[in-house]
Structure formats: structure tokens, C-alpha cells
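Board notes (copied after class):
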Amino acid sequence: MIDWLNDACFYEIYPQSFMDTDNDGTGDLNGITDRLDYVAGLGCNAIWINPFYDSPFKDAGYDVRDYLKVAKRYGTNDDAVRLFETAHRKGIKILIDLVPGHTSEEHEWFRRSSEACPNEYSSRYIWTDHWIKGIGGHPYIGGESPRNGTYMLNFFKCQPALNYGWASPSEKWQSAIDSPEALATRDAMIDVMLFWLNLGCDGFRVDMADSLAKDDDSSKSATCLIWRYILSACRSKFPSAAFVSEWSCPVQSINGAGFDMDFYLDHDGNGYNRLVRSSNSYFNGECSFNEFLDDYIPALRDTSHNGLICMMTCNHDTVRPSHFLSDRALRLFYTFLLTMPGAPFIYYGDEIGMRYLDLPSKEGGYDRTGSRTPMQWDTSVIDAGIAGQLYLPCDDAADAPTVKEQERDVNSMLNFVRGLTALRHKNHDLQAYSDFRYIAGEDISHAVIYRRGDFYIAINPSQSQTSVSAPECRESHIIWSYGEGRVDSDRIVIDAASALILRQNREV
């Protein structure tokens, strides 16, 4: 496992919306560079940046037109190198988004692949051998190219699927995963990754990582084989590079494919979803913590020696947690997130409680658009009457949270998060690789206590004081608290909507 990940706290940046330095209303790479001190001051020593490649932006940059070129709206490749170098001087790692499963329909590879005459790119994408022939139950497009065939999609209409092969080919036009054409696609993606690693990035977050081999089996065995090869090729030259997958099945992505980290995404009904993503979630005091544990514990047990299960506040695809949780519930959730195993990810603006806005779709955002609004540094764009010039509208409510306002308030959400990240960095037992053990209480639908090394974390999201039997906490001391609570002989007594962090056997 990668050593630096043990103490990593990540900050996700949607570059269009983070910081604009050229006054065109859209964020840019120089804006990220200029705000690295803010990221470091938050306690985040690693950043994940959403795609900044050249793109027509039909899917906000996840439709890549040129993997090797920074989009003009964000700056230049030289700006990316400056960002990497400046971040490293400040002790910050940079992961960039990799989109390996598809490109834009405007990518030169696809333009060449669409030609009627065979060429070296003819098999870079998945095509049938007849202009009205579909691709099983998969989405496809026909009638839009000189080529006599239809092509498979990987997401939107603008995103043709790259050809990594089929797990079990059944048609003449289907390639095996070890065919020359599938291997050529694999090697081309390795070249993309090595290009950016050579420029100074520290690894990749991989979009739709489980989508490479088509008609794969339930264990994604073919896709896992492909990733094993790709990651090995990158690690042979960059052994400290880190790779996190958008997969949400850590047994497959970590144990099978060889990723260092897997996101625990809020898929409907899974453990993470039941923590936060509904009005009747655990941190609203409504459901049992066991609904999370039943999902999480087996995955943690099976992967803990190989990689990290990573939880996030939210991301560019999901509704901000402030939409579901009150200020107090948010603080309990952040206490949990920043004291759990794995590397935590904070989405830009969540540290100040930015809100989800109900907005029309932009660049393929649809109901994701409301989580992609400009970072609220202060009220200057609203005060100046230029908010309409921004990439997306910002929150113009009188009580909209801003960094400037929360910097001045010692009790703000921003400073609350800073305190927790500082505590995590200071104590090895609260970091990524330390063991996790749940300590059952009498009323497990409310207060929860879990152990991380010498530390105990107690959280009560309910609306009433709760007393939990915890004999092993008898000699522990409270070192941090939100709300009220105490150690009472063999029990932990914790007030409503409160959280405690205790340390065993020694004073702080």
C-alpha cells in the first residue's frame, strides 16, 4: 500500500467553479494554484481535480477531445505543470481525473475510426459490421458516419465506447480482451497516464472504472485483468502514484483490479447511502447504524490489507449533504467521516456548508448541476452585480455561507472541519490504515461507539440523551467534543446531537 495515503485528506475541485483568475466567469488551473494555501489550511494534503482536458463540454469535460491537452478555458499544459510543482512544494499531492471508457465523438481517434476506409484506429472503438445492426442490449448509434456499422456508447450520445474487448466474444466484430486491437486501446491509455505522470501528477481518479470489458461477468474478471496490466505498467515507473476507482465494489476494484482506493458511493440502499442521503438517514437520527455496518464491515474485512475504502462528503455527481442534513447533523457526519479508516474526500464548498441549488442543466449536468456552483469565497460578485457572468449562478441568499465570513467565526463549519483534520493528522490511530472496531450499544439505532487504536468515537444523532454500555472505555478521557457527554463508570452518556472523541489510558 502507498505510504503517503495513510495521512491523506483529499479535496475534490470542480475546476470550472473553483477560482477564476482571468475574469471570464469560469474557474481555471491558475485559480487552483492561487488557492493552494487555503486547501492546505483546511487540512487537505491531496487534491482530486475533475477533468481539465480539451473537450466540447457536452458532459462537463467527461467527453474528452484530447487527453494530452488542457482545455483553453482552464489554461495550458504549462499551467498544469506549475500547479503540480507548486502543490508539491506545499506538501500537496494532485490526482487528476482519468476517463478511460470513452472519449468525445470529436476526438481524433473517433474521427479516424469513423472513416469508411480501414486504418489504425478502425478498431479503437466498438463497431458492429452493418449499418443497421445493434449491439445486444447496449446503447448504440448508427447513421452518423461514413463507416458501414453502428457504434457503442459508454454514457451519453456524445461518448463512444473505447474498445478494450469483450469478456466472451460471440460476433465476428467483437474483439477478445487479448486481441491486438483491444491491447492497442489499453496501451494507448497507458501512454496517456504516463504523459501526465511525467508532467508531475501523483495519480488518477478513474471514471467509470468498471466499464472497460463489455459483457463482463458478475465479478468483472475481464475488466480486473485489464486494470491489473494498466496499473502495473504505471507503477513500474511511478511506484508512489495512487489510483482511486469509481467502482463502489472494493472487493472487485481493490482485490481484483489492483486499485489503491475505491469510492464508497451513495448507491441507492447501500450502507453509505443510509448514513446521509435521505431524510430518514442515520445522521438524521432516523435509521439504524447497522444498515451501514452490514454493508461496510464485510468489505472492510476483505480489503483492509490491500487498499482503502474511501468515503466523501459528496462529489460532482451527487447532491450536497447540506440538502439532507441540518448544521448539527452535518457536524456529526464530518466527525464520522474524518475519524474513519480510508482516505476522506471533501468536495469543494462542503466545508462551509454550501447548498445544493435547483438549476437548469448545464453541460450535461442535469440534476447534478446544483452541486457544481461557484465556490463561495465571499459576496464580491453579488455585491458587484456580476453574478450572471459566472459559469453557474451562485447562492445569492442573504445567509449564504462564504469562506470570508466563516474565517472570522471560530465556531463556523469551516473551522470545525479544520479542527477535525488537524486531529486526524496529529494521531496515527485516526488515519487511513488503523484498525476499526465497532462497539455495540444497547440502542444501536441511535448512539454509536467505535474504536480506532487508542481512540473511541461516540456519536449520537438522535434528539435525546443516550447512555451506552461501554466497559472498555472506563479509563478513557474526552479529548474533543461537539455538544455534551461524559464517561460514567462503565457507560458513555452522550447528549442529543453530540459527538465525543476519547483517548484510552493517557491524557492528551
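Comment from the instructor: The longest helix spans residues 180-199. The mean pLDDT is 95.
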